[in-house]
Fold this sequence. Notes:
The protein has helices spanning about 15-20, 25-35, 40, 45-95, 200-205, 335-340, and strands spanning about 100-105, 110, 125-130, 135-140, 145-150, 155-160, 170-180, 185, 235-240, 245-255, 255-260, 265-270, 310-315, 320-325, 355-360, 365-370, 375-380, 390-395, 395-400, 405-410, 430-435, 440-445. It is of the alpha/beta class. Keywords: Membrane, Transmembrane, Transmembrane helix.
Amino acid sequence: xxxxxxxxxxxxxxxxxKDEMTVNEKASLAAQYNLGTLEDAVTPPVNKRRCNxxxxxxxxxxxxxxSICTRVSMVLLKVVLFIALLGFFVKSTFFGFxxxxxxxxxxxxxSVNNWHDHGPSxxxxxxxxxxxTSIEGxxxxxDSLNLTTVTGSIAVVxxxxxxxxxxxxxxxxxxxxxESGSISVSFRLPGTHPALSDAKxxxxxxxxxxxxxxxxxxxxxxxxxxxxxFLTPRAYEVEIHTASGSVxxxxxxxxxxxxxxxxxxxxxxxxPLVFLPAEDEEPPRDPDDDPYHxxxxxxxxxxxxRPANISIVTSTVTGTVQVSLDEPFFPPPPxxxxxxxxxxxxxxxxxxxxxxxxHVAHGAGSLHVVYPPSWAGRVHAATTGKGQVSIEGDGLIxxxxxxxxxxxxxxxxxxxxxxxxxxxxSGKMNVTVASDGGMVDFFARG
Length: 446
């Protein structure tokens, strides 16, 4: 039954109108308002707007949450990569990837690993750098040994090793440096002993018959022995520096030793290494003094050059320096050389151009210097301010001077052949002992 037509207005939000609406009326209404579905036609406008708003929010926040997750993942990945790169940089900068040394967890220090007597030159240079970690143990000296720390202490025994057969004249250099740590060092030489009885750690390391466990931790290191029966005739140069720490021990050198500190104390015995030529060896010559054979005449390759200059330096600012120059050590030649009947050690055939020693306190530091009985040469001692000078010794002639300045000389005592046993006994050595306000004491043993 059709509903009678009525000219009264009907509204979509009127329930009665909705119920009474026929199919044709609904279709006509949808076409009139351009609505796509019948549900749109019968849905109230308020509810429609609410549904559209909810759909839009869901769509927006769904895409936004996906974008935020992606960005967070990328940020986390970048942070991880940055931390990894930063760790690699810090490790390579402060600790270094040095194959020549390994950290010792048992002793809290560093030791050496993987060294050979006659390895390539790059394996004969040992360098260890730390900040607060101490460096302790026995270390071989091939071509160079560099030990550096900032606040850590250094207590080492150094065992000179044979030179590289391909470069037998290459100098053996030692460099030990620290800012505030203490330094105790001893060169292990045949027939010598540590000079400082109170250096217990050095004593134990020195008299140890077994090489350091860390030094032999690799089987390739089996050829390394603590001390060789001979030293290769070559230059041995030593430099030791500390700012506020102390320096103690015995130091062997052939032509250069430099020990410096600012406010720390120095108590060291210096052992000159003197390599005597064979009796049948042609003496070195100075081309400048040879008018018959001028320089670059072709003979320089056949005749060894004049020995290197000798330089001994100890310096401080406000610290105390106690230095003793010992009698020289004459290293025995290799066994195969000793077997030669006509190759017996002789006296030096020539001497260096310059033989000088400087013991200086740039501030009010005090100096106490002792030289061996065989020493001969000249000494100049001076101080300023409230400091005083004292120089004395058997056979030492003091000329003039006062409480702040003095000069002395001890003439050489040549034996029957008229030649000195070593450069320190030649009388050509000049010694300077000076302080800027501190005590100065020089004594030549007799």
